[in-house]
Every structure is written in structure tokens, then in C-alpha cells.
Amino acid sequence: MIAATVVIVDRVTKIFVEQRFGVPYGPREVVDHVLFLTVTRNAGAAFGLFQNFRVVFLLISAVVLVGILIYYWRLPARDWSARLGLALVFGGAISNAYDRGVKGSVVDFIQVPHWPIFNVADSAITVGVAVLLVGTLWRSGRSRRP
How many structural domains are present in the chain? Predict the structure, then answer.
């Protein structure tokens, strides 16, 4: 359910900014000196690295998605942090893979100072990895207690 929500929100926001503003667009200040709307296409990986490796990214995405599914179903139901983190990563990865496969690039539109332009799927992946790390650290700290 979480992964599906990420995909839906990501798709809706990308379609909205493409139709409403076009590509490229901006930067347009949304919140003073903090948040900008800058619509662009990214054919590369995170932060625009490795442009024009579409097939490689799709293959890597497929392997990662299958790996996440296998690992997710083996997790205990009580491991909510791992389940949440993997669901966020899965939703973000599948949405960006869809864009790469269908459109050849990903639409990015959220810009904050000193950070590359990103989208909802990128945010879900980043938050998902952070949840996985915090959950892992929390579990390892609990297991060390006497």
C-alpha cells in the first residue's frame, strides 16, 4: 500500500508539473530562499550522473526491485522499520523506472539550495534508506544491551 501510494503521488505530481508548467521551466521561488519549482528532465541516475545509460538503469532497477520483493516477504511482520523503508524504496524505484522505460528520462522539479533537483520518488527512496539505516542502528543498539 505504501509503495502504491508513492507511485501514485509521484506520477500525479510529475504529470501536473509537466502539463501546468512544461519542461524545462523555472526556477520559480515557492518559499523564500528555501524551495523552488524547477522542472527538468533527467536521463541519468541520482543527481544527473551517468546520462544516457537508460538500459543499464532499467536492468539495475529490475534486479533491485526483485531483490527488495524477495527480502520484504522474508521479513518478520514486527520489523516495521525494514518493511516501511523497503516499501518507500520500492515505490520510488518503480516510479522512476517507469519514467525511464516509457519516457526515456525522469521529470525532476523540486529544488532546494545546495542540492540537485529531485522528485517525489527520489524523496521516497532517500527517506526509505534513512528509515532502513535508523531501524538497523536501533535494532543493533537494543541487541547490545545486557
Answer: 1
